[in-house]
Amino acid sequence: MIPPFKTQTAAPAPSLRSVQADLARRMAGPQRHRLLQGYPQVALMRSSDPQRGARKARELVLSDDRALIVGVLPHPFCNPQVRGCGFCTFPHQPYRGDDARETVRHVIAEVAARTRHRPEFGPGLRGREVEALYFGGGTANLTPPDAFAELGASLAEAFDLRRAELSLEGAPIYFLSRHQAILDAFAGIPARHRRLSMGVQTFDPAWLARMGRAHFGEREQVAEVVRAAHARGMTVSCDLMINLPGQGWEDQQRDLETALSLGFDQVCVYHLVLFRGVGTEWAKDPELLGQLPDNALACENWRRARAFLLEAGFVQASLTNFERGALHQSERRFRYEELSFTPHASDAVGFGPAAISLTHHEVVCQQQTVKQVNLSDAAAYRAAVAAHGAADARDFVYAFEDRELLHLTRTLPRLAVDRTIYRSEFGADLTQSFATELRALEQAELVRLDPDALRLTERGMFYADSVAGLLAQRRVTRLRSRRRLPSGSNDAGPVHMG
Ligand code: SF4
User: Fold this and answer.
1) pLDDT by 10-residue block (mean), the chain, 498 residues
2) Position in ligand 1 atom list of the atom nearest CA 88
3) Which of 16, 372, 417, 451 could join 392 via S-S bond, C-beta 3.0 to 4.6 A?
4) Is position 257 within any domain?
5) 351 has which bridge partners?
């Protein structure tokens, strides 16, 4: 393949003073911490054109020298008693069993259409070995078990899952309902390893009630899920939130201690994203907003949570994910996340409402990288799949500068960007493209530029959203002005809570 090249003149380098001011502004604002989706944010993506046939053909020529990961969102439904659990920014809709079944039927149809064998386009997706597959979305384990089993069978027919890690995400109680029927359905899908991911958020009953999640299960039900998962040879992970309004460190530590005592293999720690205008239910409540810790205290709580888990023998695998040391050294470590944060070596294909695909193709000996996002509304998604066999709503074709930013913002969640890999991907050291920004970030003690890698400091981990936003600023400003979009602070990607 011909080495990559810049397709257009890069934006002129800004002055150090203006970059420092931009960074200070970002660090003073709300922090998103997770960098879940990488560059660019959805607003910078184009609405998909009607040339679906051409695009589907392009999808079918993924080279097979990259690892393939698959994200499946069976439906966008969940049923908390407080809208969006108070804090959630992820697309979700109120649960209705018939709608869920109908949506799963269309996800199966999307999988079949996009993996249809078309020899004229080369090997395609059909039968491709999958490294890791993740069932996520609103509340994936709320899928009716028989529909989930059908979806699993269709994926096992379309792909080779025998060496895959499978993850199933959801709320604790639904892993147990109907005599653990969803676990039986999950265990019926061929795989190398299976893991559960539970949205616990906190074990504090008062906070669970405030979130409208009391019926999702308290400590005893969570413990039962961990036992059920381990009895079936599965590993199990929990999401915990820190920096809830008015919450002291002792409360946060108690949640971490409980998670460890219950035997979780992985603990994902999330800083609560809450500020006026984020669009969640809690963002309308001045009292809650007034009780939020400032960034200095929130960062200190993050440091304490990190230190607590490291002292307990966990290894930090990414910005948010901590794994027990022995597990992290084994084949059973969390591969889906690791690969999704290794964009130069993996393709990601997504099915279902709001699913994201990020794929690489060779076009006339040049690499082309494309991101696509599916429609998120269940009815609109179903209508699109019924009509076209696909439901992509937006796409983004990466120019050279965009690929650099994608690489940085997708790799930073693994805490370091390898400079040798960066040079081989882009033909130059990252200091050539981002000299001023890196200087400002080093001065603010957010990153360290070592000879082998750019590393986030502990403080930089908390301010990762500011780091990514600063690196993307120049390019985002140009794209916004070209597309006449309003300016905003969230430059690296949208918030995503599960
Ligand atoms: S946090 Fe989970 S259960 Fe709550 S609204 Fe969001 S997707 Fe639904």
Assistant:
1) 47 87 97 81 80 50 84 96 92 92 98 81 81 94 97 97 98 97 98 98 97 95 98 98 97 98 98 92 96 97 98 97 97 96 94 94 77 95 94 93 96 97 96 96 98 98 96 93 60 34
2) 6
3) 372
4) yes
5) 72
